[in-house]
Amino acid sequence: MRDEPGGVDSAGYRLISDIKAEEGGKVVTVTFAAPYPGWRSLFSALLPAHLLKDAPGGWDQVLETGFPATAGPFSIKQLDIPRGEIVLERNERYWEQPAVADRVILRRADQAGLVDALRTGHDQLVVARTDEAGVAMLQTLGAKVTVKAAPRPTVLNLVFRQTGPDLQDERVRTALTHILDRDAIIKAGTGGGPSVRADALVLAPSQAGYASTGPQAHDPAAAQQLLTQAGYALTSGVWTQEGRPLSITIGAPADKEPYVIVAKEVQKQLVAAGVQVKLVTPTADQLLRPATAAEAGPNILVAPRPVGDNPAAVLASMYGCPARSNDSSVVPPGNIAGFCDPSMQPVIDAALTGSMSLSDAIANLEPRLWRQSVAVPLFQLADSVAARSELATGELTAPLNAPFASAVTWRRNPN
Predict the structure, then answer these.
(1) What's phi and psi for 375, nearest 5 deg?
(2) How far apart (Å, rounded) are the C-alpha atoms in residues 191 and 193?
(3) The domain 153-380: what is its CATH number?
(4) pLDDT tens digits, residue range 239-267?
(5) CA 264/CA 182 separation, integer angstroms
(6) Contacts (Cβ under 8 Å, ≥6 apart) of 298
């Protein structure tokens, strides 16, 4: 969690200076190197070590093909990946509020299948990433079905790495952001579904205090002016500098939607504007590896920004400089953009440790981050949640873990 690229809240974990187990492991004392008001967010999803220690591929691969879980209100009775079905049963050994339902069955289906299952009453609850057509189909089910949007804990970002001979120039990065038509990219990525446009670099639309901070807009004329200032000329429809074409690589995680769809739309727009673009789709862990002298990797990443309980940690993890190390052989982890502005670091540290309010830090930093074109937020992913009236539920759109936060109270009433 401290060192792997793209780790959620990695800046918070890096503040941990010592961990001690006492009383046979029943008490764990964690010491931080500096005050950290958001410390609780680091321990909200603990799992016993024995579930992870023998996982194939080790800790960093444990969630690739398995679902380690323990001590919850439900136990996994059956996991059938080929059929797309998971059977959960009430965990009689759970010490907190017991689940009302004896069994919850999760099934995979396409949009049409989900709507039909709701219409017939075969299923009582649907959670799905839907496009405009899927939302319309759900809304035809009438008053017996309630349809809501449930934000996911993820904002889809374009991350600009300052690598290669071109993107090291702030003018070039800013020109690329002006070339891009964000509205068209968002439409392609969401398909007209419930996902919400994002216009801030730290907070997500679903979070308290969110406000649009993004000044950038689709402006091809400004893009041409900036590229000309940076020494490029438009020759035969291609931007070149001393005979070398402006060339970038876009990376998106393989088989992950809507990331690849977004990457293809970005590629199409940039190519149409005279930029040579290569699209690569490695696995997510390969995509987020830091650039090295031997392997620069993609210049632009289509990557997630986490939406967590502690936005100050997101700020520090996404935009902070690497931690200092006294060991010259150790390469300290950085953010996935490889970005570091030492003049910003005192403000980032102050927000992380609580000596400056997050709102003041955002007001100070976001205009500077926008000017340097570090990242361009696109939209916060969201699912459609639809429930039949005979299913009594709690809040189905709770942040971070919707709709299952209220699963212990689910009750199916008689028709």
Answers:
(1) -155, 155
(2) 5
(3) 3.10.105.10
(4) 999 999 999 999 999 988 899 999 999 99
(5) 13
(6) 161, 249, 250, 251, 280, 287
